[in-house]
UniProtKB/TrEMBL annotation, chain A:
Protein name, UniProt field: Cytochrome c-type biogenesis protein CcmF
Location relative to the cell: Cell inner membrane
Domain annotation Cytochrome c-type biogenesis protein CcmF C-terminal: ranges: 315-641
NCBIfam families tied to this protein: nrfE, PRK10369.1
Taxonomic lineage from the root: Bacteria, Pseudomonadati, Pseudomonadota, Alphaproteobacteria, Hyphomicrobiales
Stated role: Required for the biogenesis of c-type cytochromes. Possible subunit of a heme lyase.
Principal location listed in the UniProt entry: membrane
Transmembrane annotation, as ranges: 6-30, 42-62, 96-114, 126-148, 175-195, 207-229, 273-292, 312-331, 352-374, 394-413, 425-443, 449-470, 491-516, 619-639
Membrane topology: Multi-pass membrane protein
GO biological process: cytochrome complex assembly
UniProtKB/TrEMBL annotation, chain B:
GO terms for MF: heme binding; metal ion binding
Residues in compartment: Extracellular: 29-144
Location of the protein in the cell: Cell membrane; Membrane
Organism, scientific name: Nitratireductor pacificus pht-3B
Lineage: Bacteria, Pseudomonadati, Pseudomonadota, Alphaproteobacteria, Hyphomicrobiales
Protein's recorded name: Cytochrome c-type biogenesis protein CcmE
Topology within the bilayer: Single-pass type II membrane protein
Gene3D superfamilies: Nucleic acid-binding proteins
Gene assigned in the entry: ccmE
């Protein structure tokens, strides 16, 4: 397949996106069925064209066609096949193309699965999707063309940045983009609702599965990125509050708030205007993230682009979409009717509190991320805002949120009884408190924080279990009846419980590793040992090794318990990639239960000893396991019969009444 | 409560949270930000000992000295002035002589900068953005 074919397909898809952005919306205004019907074929064909264009680039990477500038800059013929393929999105141009492919994919999904949406709503949603698509395709064509040729073609490519040659990177960007771009659907629905000036609970029922799917992928993308940074950068850190990481956390926080407010809207038809605003803000944060990462204003491993025209271009897209949608909101939101009433102490009230805490926490992260850029633009001073800032601002807002999570699902809609709920949660609270005391007395008496944090995480897990137990009537009815009720619970109830328990597990992991971690930095000669937290690590010396496109010095270690029982070998190495003249550190990691022993190599001292950094990371895997459990919760909820993508239920169904009591 | 009162209560609650968040943010920005300095900037704007800053520049040629423990000493220069730095730990993979570096820490009593973090950009050109910008301002920047 020729690369020009890909380029041509992309140009065609741009033209088609323009049609998709205008014709269906005009059709909606004119009430013309024929014009509105243009949306679906345009979206599906558009996706086929962008996919073809992405396939053409991938083929050029697989064939190591160095006559393509982008391939020459980011690939090498000796690179393993997997990294040739993933290298397609391991650079600025390719990753933007992936962004557009996923956007078109979601648009096509709406076209295919949105058959039972009201005509004009579907037309407007596809129109807004087309507008976003055309802006970003134009961005690629005008400033970041991945299809540029190179003449004469060089013999060999410059290779992909070695730290990106990793399986984690193969998965991280597509997942992250599925999340980022997935929120565009919620955004398009919000804009469509504003254009139509009409919104009801059914709207929330359509938006929620899309938001849930995007949230699920974004959760996975962030977790994957965090684990990748943890093992690949060799520093043993899982989160650095780096602006680029914040760029992915911001839409996640916004999306989490959106999920919860859409729930209120769907069940109780309240918070309509707020939900529309959140949908706009969440996708705006995704766009902002794209801008921060892709414009080169930040220094990071992600900042491939340093061309200032790109930054300006994305900034213009950002201003048009965010400014335009907020202006539309200010103009049209007052026409939307207000929703149902509720008492402050109720499920709705709890979800409002959740939203308030989440959005203010989002705001503090946003300020911390943008403040240094702002200060530099205004005064020229270069400052950095790091972990201490976020611990001081994000922490105090997020901790109370975690503490109230178990109450939410137990409160009744409309009017709840806080005292009764507190009574029901008494067992969960007691159990969490007991473990807290146990941790304090047995594990570490010096760190009250560790015990409290782990207790908080367990409170979330036990709270989720209590919710399931109560809803299946455990203890009130006979065990077989309770079991039958348990298996008959709506899947979204399991989804909620899983997601909340996963959040608890992640909390435990983060708290345990930040408070109880043990670090040793030692200079070691072969044969010497170091003891870390009841484990002995013996250094057996360095061994050279040659990989497909790198050479490395492998440090070999033998790990055993302090009692002498051997646990196995750990290999940690210093790699060198000759194509880029670049060294990397490959950490040696051994998982023991939920904890990990992490070994990273440094330089040699004049006397020939090797500097070795060893960490004991207690319960560190829970950080990512918790994210997996959260994702499982999202997936289970998505499978709920009542929430099937694009299949709205009539509002009057009595199901809503029973789920109101149980869900 | 009427609809209006409820809305007011929610708005008041939201303002309360926003106020708390704004307060925390302002306090934290005052306490927890660290300014970026090049060695020459220190001549113009001296830094109190104990104040946390980020110091950037080039690693001076032949200045890297390793002890037999994990201590490393090196000097950061911007061509005009030089500051001595000590660091205990493992340096980033791309830490090299005459290459850009950003260190974070505080000044000890003896005018030696005690770094607890040494940052390097993961790129073959290996120049942290702040350092590149500052060198361009000083006119000593060389394109490759």
């Amino acid at each position: 397949m020729s690369i020009e074919l890909g380029h041509f397909a992309l140009v065609l898809s741009f033209a088609l996106a323009l049609v998709q952005a205008t014709v269906p919306i005009i059709g909606g205004r004119l009430k013309s069925e024929a014009l509105m019907r243009v949306g679906e074929p345009a979206a599906i064909t558009g996706f086929a064209l962008v996919a073809l264009s992405f396939a053409a680039l991938t083929v050029a990477y697989v064939q190591s066609d160095f006559s393509v500038l982008n391939v020459w800059e980011n690939s090498h013929s000796a690179k393993p096949l997997l990294f040739k393929i993933t290298g397609t999105w391991g650079n600025h141009e390719g990753s933007m193309l992936l962004w557009v492919v996923i956007l078109a994919f979601f648009g096509a999904l709406v076209a295919v699965f949105g058959r039972n949406l009201p005509r004009s709503l579907r037309a407007n949603v596809l129109g807004v999707q087309g507008a976003i698509g055309s802006a970003f395709i134009l961005f690629i064509l005008a400033t970041s063309n991945p299809f540029a040729r190179l003449d004469p073609a060089p013999m060999q490519g410059r290779d992909l940045n070695p730290i990106l040659q990793d399986i984690g990177l193969a998965v991280h960007p597509p997942l992250l983009y599925l999340g980022y771009v997935g929120f565009s659907i919620a955004f398009s629905f919000a804009i469509a609702a504003l254009i139509e000036g009409r919104i009801d609970a059914a709207w929330a029922r359509w938006v929620r599965p899309w938001t849930l799917a995007a949230w699920l992928f974004l959760t996975g993308g962030i977790a994957m990125g965090s684990y990748w940074a943890y093992y690949e950068l060799g520093w043993g850190g899982f989160w650095f509050w780096d602006p680029v990481e914040n760029a992915s956390l911001l839409p996640w926080l916004g999306g989490t708030a959106l999920l919860h407010s859409a729930l209120v809207m769907e069940k109780r038809s309240a918070l309509k205007i707020w939900t529309v605003l959140l949908a706009i803000l969440t996708f705006s944060l995704s766009l902002l993230g794209t801008f921060l990462v892709r414009s080169g204003v930040l220094t990071s491993v992600h900042a491939f682009a340093t061309d200032p025209t790109r930054g300006v271009f994305i900034l213009i897209i950002l201003m048009i979409f965010i400014g335009g949608s907020l202006a539309l909101f200010a103009w049209r939101a007052p026409t939307l009717s207000a929703g149902g009433l509720f008492q402050p102490v109720s499920r709705e009230g709890a979800l409002v509190l959740n939203n308030l805490l989440l959005t203010t926490a989002t705001a503090t992260v946003l300020v911390g991320t943008l403040y240094p850029l702002l200060v530099e633009a205004v005064t020229g001073d270069k400052i950095s805002v790091g972990a201490p800032f976020f611990n001081l601002t994000f922490g105090p807002l997020f901790l109370p949120l975690l503490a109230i999570v178990p109450f939410g699902p137990l409160l009744a809609w409309k009017r709840g009884d806080l005292a009764a709920v507190a009574q029901r949660l008494f067992a969960a609270f007691g159990a969490a408190l007991a473990v807290t005391l146990l941790v304090y007395v047995i594990v570490d008496r010096t760190s009250v924080l560790a015990a409290l944090g782990i207790g908080l995480g367990l409170w979330l897990v036990f709270g989720a279990l209590t919710d399931l137990a109560l809803k299946s009537g455990l203890g009130k009815v006979a065990a077989p009846v309770a079991f039958r009720r348990f298996t008959g619970l709506p899947r979204s109830v399991f989804g909620t419980a899983l997601a909340h328990a996963g959040l608890g597990l992640t909390t435990i992991g983060i708290v345990a590793v930040t408070t109880l971690e043990v670090e040793r930095v030692v200079a070691m000669q072969p044969g010497e040992s170091v003891e870390v937290q009841g484990h002995v690590l013996r250094f057996d010396g360095l061994q050279p090794f040659t990989g497909p496109n790198y050479t490395e010095d492998q440090g070999r270690f033998v790990l055993s318990r302090a009692t002498g029982a051997k646990l196995g070998e750990i290999v940690s190495s210093k790699r060198f990639y000759p194509a880029r003249q670049m060294p990397t550190t490959e950490a040696g990691i051994r998982t023991l239960g939920l904890s990990q022993l992490y070994v990273s190599l440094g330089d040699k001292t004049p006397s020939g000893a090797l500097i070795v950094r060893v960490w004991w990371k207690p319960m560190v895997t829970l950080i990512w396991l918790g994210a997996l459990v959260m994702m499982a919760g999202g997936a289970v909820s998505l499978l709920d019969r009542r929430l099937r993508v694009g299949a709205p239920m009539p509002r009057s169904k009595p199901v809503t009444a029973t789920q109101g009591n149980r869900a | 409560m009427t609809r209006k009162q409820k809305r007011l209560a929610i708005i008041a609650g939201a303002l309360g949270f926003l106020g708390a968040a704004a307060g925390l943010t302002l306090y934290a920005l005052g306490q927890q930000t660290s300014y970026f300095y090049m060695p020459s900037d220190l001549q113009e704007r001296p830094v109190a000992s104990g104040q946390r800053i980020r110091l950037g520049g080039l690693v001076e040629k032949d200045s890297i000295m390793r002890g037999d423990d994990t201590q490393v000493r090196f000097a950061v220069t911007d061509g005009d002035h030089t500051v001595k730095v000590t660091y205990a730990g493992i340096l980033p993979d791309l830490f090299r002589e005459e290459q850009g570096v950003v260190t974070e820490g505080i000044f000890g009593a003896d005018e030696v900068f005690v770094a607890d973090t040494v940052l390097a950009k993961h790129d073959e050109n290996y120049m942290p953005k702040e350092v590149a910008d500052s060198l361009k301002e000083k006119g000593v920047w060389k394109e490759n």
